Amino acid sequence: MIKLHGASISNYVNKVKLGILEKGLEYEQVRVAPSQEEEFLKISPMGKIPVLEMDGKFIFESGAILEFLDTIFPQTPKLIPEDSWEAARVREISTIIETYLDIPARRIYLPATRGKEVSPEIVEEVHPILVKGIKALQRVVRFSPYIAGEVFTMADCSGFAHLSVLDEELRPFYPDNHPLDLLNGWKEYFTFMKTKTGPALVEKEKQTLKKILARAKTKIE
């Protein structure tokens, strides 16, 4: 049995969960948060989530996990295409989304979700960085109907998990000039993905956990 360690509010956990669901694999989610405790560092050296557990062994880093699943379950739908050029394109898309969009966006949405104030200077500074990333992404996505072409790939795991967070969490900071609005085909893609069982489940679980955390925060305050 596969065990996925992590919380459903994490886009990287959801990236892996999307891949697991697309492959039709049975799994158990062990709900844990990132930790610097020694016991957790034994299975995730940076203390991050997600972590995949299987046969008493552990793998961390979302990309490594998905490629591992492709290798060990070859009879299931491939997340990395067999064609080398298509495989490279899938990895390019995932890298653009995670490196040039999610990382700079975290300067805004991580402190915001923790109840900290985000300065207007940071919001202004991050905006052109995100715009540049979106323009780069536009050059390589296809949305036909999936982000890299006609079949679901690891790029969709990254795309749906990360871009949905950027859309939702950055909207209050960029109500009239959200960089994601420059990505032609994004809204139609997101609507299409939510008609699929896996993405719909991931989105539902994420929103449910967000509501639970919001209620808990209200009680504390």
Automatic annotation (TrEMBL):
SUPFAM superfamilies: GST C-terminal domain-like, Thioredoxin-like. Keywords: Transferase. The keyword Transferase applies. It comes from Leptospira noguchii serovar Autumnalis str. ZUN142. PANTHER family: GLUTATHIONE S-TRANSFERASE OMEGA (PTHR43968:SF6), PTHR43968. Residues 83-220 form the GST C-terminal domain. GO terms for molecular function: transferase activity. CDD domains: GST_C_9, GST_N_family. GO terms for cellular component: cytoplasm. Residues 1-77 form the GST N-terminal domain. It holds the Pfam family GST_N_3. It comes from the Bacteria. This is Glutathione S-transferase family protein.
